[in-house]
From TrEMBL:
It comes from Lysobacter cavernae. Keywords: Membrane, Transmembrane, Transmembrane helix. The chain crosses the membrane at residues 44-64, 76-92, 98-120, 141-162, 168-185, 192-208, 220-239. This is Tryptophan-rich sensory protein.
Length: 250
């Protein structure tokens, strides 16, 4: 399983490289641009994938050389699956296989969120594996927690499941669902730094994109993105303060 983690981690940047060169179709960016939504983020936001891939590789190679920690052993299969699903999503979306791509990205989130929650709840793992396992997997999970809703919105537009002319009501519902997911997972992880940073990066990029957009409801969506970011930041500060008080009261 250790070597499967490494192979899956290597597969992500390899698939990204081939996808960006049009090996599977018009590319992720070109495909996404065909189906604009009020959850779209500014293009610069996707640069976070380079950091995610790099840090996931750090995790993959670090876990080869450590004695098995209980939490690490539990997360290793899910991490390998999450990396593989992330890699698989790229050609599926590029080829506009929207339903399989949507299923795969939600599966990737489920796997990486499990890893982040598992490591966050193990105090020994947090001390010993903070930067080599907990942070990279949490960063990946945080970005996917927004990406799944962006992908969901694009599928809705592509398949014309709801009105692309009156997007604000159902896009607000997706923002609400994203907020609920972010706040719930962050609470379970007691204010996870990596998870929150990735989510805030995406929400800030959504604000930048929507505040400059001319689509009906875009300014409202920009305000909602800021509101969710502020709520997540405030929750994290409160959760971290609770943890701090608990440590010093024991």
């Amino acid at each position: 399983m250790r070597y499967l983690v490494v192979l899956a981690a290597l597969l992500m940047p390899v698939m990204a490289w081939f996808t960006q060169r049009g090996a599977f179709g018009p590319g992720i960016g070109a495909t996404a641009d065909r189906y604009p939504t009020l959850l779209d983020v500014a293009d610069y936001a996707f640069a976070i994938w380079a950091l995610i891939f790099l840090w996931d590789l750090v995790f993959a190679f670090a876990q080869l050389h450590r004695h098995d920690h209980a939490a690490l052993a539990r997360t290793r299969p899910a991490a390998a699956a999450g990396f593989a699903f992330t890699a698989l999503w790229m050609p599926l979306f590029s080829q506009q296989l929207f339903w399989p791509a949507l299923l795969v990205i939600w599966l990737a989130l489920a796997c990486l969120a499990y890893c982040a929650v598992t490591l966050s709840r193990d105090h020994v793992a947090l001390r010993q594996l903070r930067w080599r396992a907990w942070f990279p997997l949490s960063l990946h999970a945080g970005w996917l927690s927004l990406a799944v809703f962006l992908n969901t919105a694009q599928v809705i537009v592509a398949q014309r499941l709801l009105s692309p002319e009156r997007m604000l009501p159902w896009n607000l519902a997706l923002y609400a669902a994203a907020a609920a997911l972010l706040l719930t997972l962050n609470a379970r992880m007691h204010g996870n730094l990596g998870y929150v940073l990735a989510a805030l990066w995406g929400l800030a990029a959504a604000y930048v994109q929507q505040s400059a957009a001319t689509a009906p409801g875009a300014r409202v969506a920009a305000g909602v993105a800021v509101t969710v970011a502020v709520a997540l930041l405030a929750q994290s500060a409160w959760l971290r303060a609770r943890v701090h008080r608990h440590i010093f009261s024991d």
